[in-house]
Amino acid sequence: MHRKKIWLGLASLITLLLFLAGCQASSTNQSKTSSMPKISGFSYSGKIPENPKKVVNFAYSYTGYLLKLGVNVSSYSLDYEKDSPAFGDQLKKAKKLQSSDTEAIAAQKPDLIIAFSTDQNLDKLKKIAPVLVITYGKHDYLDMMTQLGKVFGKEKEAQNWLSSWKKQVASAKKTLAKTIPSDATFTVMDFYDKNIYLYGNNWGRGGELVYDALGYKAPQKVQDDVFKTGYFGVSQEAIGDYIGDYAILNSTKASADSVNALTESDVWKNTSAYQNKHVFQVDEALFYFSDPLSLESQLKAFIKLAQDQAN
According to the 3-state scheme, what is the secondary structure of the chain? Predict the structure, then answer.
């Protein structure tokens, strides 16, 4: 009987120790996952390195943020990234990859993959390396710099840029006030597959620069039809209803014929923007994104266009 009590006591002790060990392991695992900042629209798979040596990036909207923060981006998925004048030659050695190219991705041996939450290949990517998943549109273009700074331990660098950008914009507003009325309205547009698209304040093409940073307004019809969805397709016949005092016309070599078809039309020539020579035709490769590197270059290009137009 005595021995039975001893064995029961030992069994209870072992059970308790195993339970405590399990709790400790659970706590350790929890600390690993909770060590990353909790950010709306961000999720993590695997242990995200703070200073990754090789990043395969499919969340192309944020390439310029990563480069500005000094994160080593070793791939791109859009030619707009490689061809961006704002990025210079920083992606010169980067490899073009698509998220479906799992064998090619694995061959790169990345220590981090970044992808949009809508990427259909997330499950496959998570088997290759840790993955940072970002939901587009959860943060505005300025707040995104802060959040990425937190993820990569570069909060100071992020804050330094935000402070610098605020000063750049303030200076630009003083310069632009000499040539563009503060109440002037702007329409931001580009061409894709021969169709005309208008853009709001959160879909690139210069919208963040013109509407948010510089504070110009869009015509009411643009605000009503475009801002909610971010972009909006419009026919050439109806374009006159959406053009404000000024127009930002994004163009590429591929869209040259579509640009000419519009700008040579009677509808276009009847707009006040055309008649007052208030059309800023810009390189879409520069104005496509709204990251720190792109915004700085866009601001300089915008000021030059405004000054050239005034002379």
Answer: CHHHHHHHHHHHHHHHHHHHHHHHHHHHHHHHHHCCCCCCCEEEECCCCCCCCCEEECCHHHHHHHHHHCCCECEECCHHHHHCCCCCCCCCCCEECCCCCHHHHHHHCCCEEEEECCCCCHHHHHCCCCEEEECCCCCCCCHHHHHHHHHCCCHHHHHHHHHHHHHHHHHHHHHHCCCCCCCCEEEEEEEECCEEEEECCCCCCCHHHHHHHCCCECCHHHHHHCCCCCEEEECCCCHHHCCCCEEEEEECCCCHHHHHHHHCCHHHHCCHHHHCCCEEEEEHHHHCCCCHHHHHHHHHHHHHHHHHHHC
What pTM, to 2 d.p., does this model score? 0.86
Report d(CA 265, CA 274) in Å as an integer: 11
The C-alpha R_g of the chain, in whole angstroms, comes to 26
Span 243-272, pLDDT tens digits: 999 999 999 999 999 999 999 999 999 999
Q: Phi, psi at residue 275, to the nearest 5°?
A: -65, -30
